[in-house]
Amino acid sequence: MKQKRWYRLDNAAKIYPAVRTKKWSGNFRVSATLTEKVDPEILQQALDDVRKRIVNLNLELKTGFFWYFFEETDREVLVEPDSQNPCGRIGGKHNRDMPYRVRYYDRRIVVEVFHTLADGTGGMIFLKSIVARYLFLKYSVKIPPDDEIISCDSEYDTEEMEDAYKRYAKFRTMKSRSETKGYHFKGTALPDEQISVITGIIPVDDVLKKSREYGVTLTEFIVSVMIESFMKCQAQSKSKIERPIKVSVPINLRKIYPSKTMRNFSLYINPGIEPRYGEFTFREITEEVHHFMRMNNKEKYLNAIMCKNLSDEINPFLRIVPLVFKNIAMATAFRMYGETLVSSTFSNLGLVKVPPEMEKYIERFEFMLGRFMAGMPSAAAASFKGKLYINWTSGIKEKDVERNFFTSLVKSGIHVKIESNMC
């Protein structure tokens, strides 16, 4: 019998199986909407073909005595119809479910990923590779491979599966995780299986023009509008305690370190404002966000965060602690240093690029975060063909934050088209 290969989880992945519950798992979704209706049989063949090449898509999460780990599997993965409530929990009894799923609806192809397997960049590589193979099988169009489209005929590169955190951590110093708790907008919880999705479709040029007026990037502008939206909600609340409003922003470390990994390789920084200092104008918010991002989105600072995250993993004593106790410790750390520190998250995959041979068959790309454990509203974005698609997701009924956000954009002269999965 062939010995199955196994892989340690990367540093960012280790927290997710430890804090996963029967009703929640940290996952995300990337999708491509084509110009014609998806053929499920051809999509299944495309997935099967791509799985023969991409190792990450043939891994099953297992529970060891000391750590969770991935093991190679030859289990069949079947494409399935999409759901009105996307990003449902991934992972079944005894971890028998794969850490991803592939779905379809009408003209849309979807890949949903448990964060143990990959970050948004890795997920987009999976999606684009599957879509490229699908287009080849259906239309006989040859899509030239690039850094984010893996050809089924290409040679496997071991760097695709590396834990890049361990490769690039320098351990010169470590950055403390200590921060003050952030403001959380609270509301009426939706049933556990439901998620609210509100999509804003916005001309990229409109957002870029407005961003330049404030001297900030598109991401910094969107984060500033988010902070202002939460600030208005906190000001209208009955709470006597004003908490910091912070938005967690993932930083793709592949733009700093030359890695081909398809696993997790990102870190978070949390720009925001402290309302106790007084009222902030929108321009003041953009200045706070801009300077924070410029100061903290630097290799030396990010490496110090990376080293702090790795320090517990490589501690000789903690390595021999049984997993059952590690789970308790990681769950405690998640409550202290995870969602509780921030008001929301904004993850921007940026401009999605594909070869011209592929572009004419695709109408849009989207990126979406799953429900947060606390149910708070969060946003993710991707742009394609001149449109910025911002997906707000939440686990609560109230839509004050999202309403404030899109109203602010419209009042600033930016045209917004809204879609939603909620009646």
Key phrases:
5-stranded mixed sheet; alpha+beta; 12 helices; single chain; 8-stranded mixed sheet; globular; 423 residues
Rough shape?
globular
> What is the rounded Rg?
21 Å
Number of strands: 16
Termini separation comes to: 53 Å
Task: Return the string of H and E elements.
Answer: EHEHEEEEEHHEHHEEEHHHHEHEEEHE
Briefly note the structural class of the backbone.
Answer: alpha+beta
Main beta sheet: 8 strands, mixed
Helix content: 25-40%
Unreliable stretches covering 5 or more consecutive residues: none
Number of helices: 12
Q: How much strand content do the residues show?
A: 15-25%
Topology:
Layout: E1 6-8, H1 15-19, E2 27-34, H2 40-51, E3 59-63, E4 68-72, E5 80-81, E6 100-105, E7 108-114, H3 120-139, H4 164-168, E8 196-203, H5 204-213, H6 218-236, E9 245-252, E10 266-269, E11 272-273, H7 282-296, H8 299-314, H9 316-319, H10 323-337, E12 344-351, H11 356-359, E13 362-369, E14 378-384, E15 387-394, H12 400-411, E16 417-420
Parallel strand pairs: 5-6, 9-12, 12-14
Antiparallel strand pairs: 1-4, 2-7, 2-13, 3-4, 6-7, 8-15, 8-16, 9-10, 9-11, 14-15
Helix pairs in contact: 2-3, 6-7, 6-12
